[in-house]
Amino acid sequence: MNAKRILSKIVGLIQTAIGGLTMFFAFFLFYNLFAIQAVLGFSAEGIGLYLWAFIIFGLLSIISGLFLFYEQ
Amino acid sequence: MDEPHLKRDLGLIRTTMLGIGGSLSAANFVIIGEAAGMAGYAIVPIVVVCGFLSLLTMFSYAELGTAIPLAGGEYTFAKVAYGGFTSFLTGWFEWLSNMFYTALSAIGFAYVVSYLFPQINLPLTAVIVVIVFAIINLRGTKETATAETIITIIVLAILAIFVIGGWSFVQGPQAAPPSASPIGILGIFAATAYLFELYLGAEAVAAAQAEVKNPGRNIPLAIVLSAVVLIALYTSVVSVAVGIVPPDVLSHQSSPIAFVAEQALGPAGAILITVGLAIAGLAATNEAILAQSRVLYAMSRDGYLPKGLCKVHKRFCTPHVAIIVGAIFTVIFAATGFVNFVVYAVNLGFIIGFSIVNLSVIKLRKIAPHLKRPFKAPLYPLTPIAGIVASAFLILFIEPSVLILGLELGIVALLVYYIRMVGHHRIRIAFGGISLGLGGFFAFVAYLLGTNSIVLHGVSQEVPTLVFYVLLFVSIIQVLAGILNLIASDR
């Protein structure tokens, strides 16, 4: 396995993890687990927008990361 | 496509029991309480209406199940009728709704058991049930209609005792006096969309067509018989429940039917109902895990999803990767313990699936008029059209957050489909560009934070520094990922 492939695997794994954590964060935010909305000072009206942003960012990161991780 | 040849040894009674058993989940007897809170005494006619709405689509299932002798249910019907993205989308939502249904069955089991053991942690119990049955499915299960029939008969017998005992109580002087139901028409529609879940699972009759003797006669008969039995069963259970305990009291119970049984039959009644519903809940969880893993397996086998998902375990001969992936997602939703959200998510998935089945009937009647159809949906095209209209109408009353989730999952489906079907290299370049853009954005936000152009209020001094480094790290990773995707070779 050459250096580029190793780097791709590492970066892909980290990017996927970032995406996954962001999705979890969105999940916590949606259900307001641990009163996270109040802790972060997010208004109830703005939650929908934050959710969209986090979910889309999470999905893009996961897909991009998986591309790198499974690079032939 | 080579499908394993299965022996046709299911007669009318056992086929009917498959349909009844497929619908008997512990969760159904939990959500009755919430629905009673929504609809008041109108819950009784709503249960009947839901049964008839479901029956409309069951006719379509019967027609397609007997005309297309391949395993796979809705996904296979859509593949034959439409192919391409429609069949992928159908399989996608079929998998998701079965996954949500697994979570719901496990949560329903936890709620039912909590009536006798209130100290149990509901989400944890649901998660443990999912994990245990995922392991059982990994090791392989023998789908025996006999076991299903026995479980169904036990649950039906327990529910019959409840109805007969409860009915005597309703006739007695201790019954709750009936009162007016102060709900509007919107409440009735919302409760109808919520209770639609009651009859899901009856389509198992059509799915098992390969094992049914004389399918042209027995499948439609079994579908109608199971629908009639289920409508009668749920209507009598709900009538007795709201006859003994007022709907507003019922809506606050973790296991409404066990609570009613305790009022009418004493503690022994509550124990009997809890045992019966717990058995039903476990059986439903097991079947749902089996169903969702097989859908994921079939979609992977057809090239719609990564090939790894259709790997079969060498020793146990089960699609272990599909089971594990499905179980991971199920555990996440079971861990929420939120019944209402999961009920609406199940309903949304099945409503989409039902609509596509009805559309497939219409499409196949047009493009394949000479296809051998041992059974034809009566009053065609009224029944499939009525099924589609009813499904579309019910979607309007599904919780908005679930609709948003459904839309997002539809977008994910679109992405997954095009990643699989469109040139892989071009998609990678697109994602490389997106990652670079995201990296630049995060670097900019980190810069604003570092120069105090953005100020975080109400947090300790360390938090902005921590956020700065996190953003910087994310930015570097996104930029690196972008470059690596852009320079990837075209292989």
Structural summary, described in words:
The complex is a heterodimer of chains A (72) and B (491). Chain A is mainly α. Chain A has one domain (3-69). Helix content of chain A is 78%, strand content 0%. Chain A is elongated and about 50 Å long. The mean pLDDT of chain A is 84. With 491 residues, chain B is mostly helical. Chain B is 74% helix and 0% strand. Chain B contains 19 helices and no strands. Chain B has helices at residues 12-23, 26-39, 43-67, 74-81, 84-114, 122-139, 145-171, 185-195, 204-207, 215-244, 247-250, 256-265, 267-301, 320-336, 339-367, 382-395, 400-421, 424-450, 462-486. At the A-B interface, helix 1 and helix 3 of A face helix 17, helix 18 and helix 19 of B.
Give the arrangement of secondary structure elements.
The complex is a heterodimer of chains A (72) and B (491).
Chain A: H1 3-30, H2 36-40, H3 47-69
Helix pairs in contact in A: 1-3
Chain B: H1 12-23, H2 26-39, H3 43-67, H4 74-81, H5 84-114, H6 122-139, H7 145-171, H8 185-195, H9 204-207, H10 215-244, H11 247-250, H12 256-265, H13 267-301, H14 320-336, H15 339-367, H16 382-395, H17 400-421, H18 424-450, H19 462-486
Helix pairs in contact in B: 1-7, 1-10, 2-5, 2-8, 3-8, 3-10, 3-15, 3-16, 4-5, 4-15, 5-6, 5-13, 5-14, 5-15, 5-17, 6-13, 6-14, 7-10, 7-12, 7-13, 10-12, 12-13, 13-14, 15-16, 15-17, 18-19
Average pLDDT for all residues of chain A: 84
Broad shape of chain A: elongated
Q: Show unreliable segments of chain B.
A: 1-6
CATH-defined superfamily of the largest domain in chain B: Amino acid/polyamine transporter I
Number of helices of chain A: 3
CATH architecture of the largest domain in chain B: Up-down Bundle
Total individual domains of chain A: 1
Helix content of chain A: over 70%
Q: How can the largest sheet of chain B be summarized?
A: none
Radius of gyration of chain B: 25 Å
Order of helices and strands of chain A: HHH
What percent strand of chain B?
under 5%
Overall domain count of chain B = 2
| Average pLDDT score of chain B | 83
In helices, the fraction of residues of chain B equals over 70%
Oligomer designation: heterodimer
Just give the CATH class of the largest domain in chain B. Answer: Mainly Alpha
Large-scale geometry of chain B: globular
Question: How many β strands of chain A by DSSP?
Answer: 0
Q: Evaluate the radius of gyration of chain A.
A: 15 Å
How many angstroms separate the termini of chain A? Answer: 10 Å
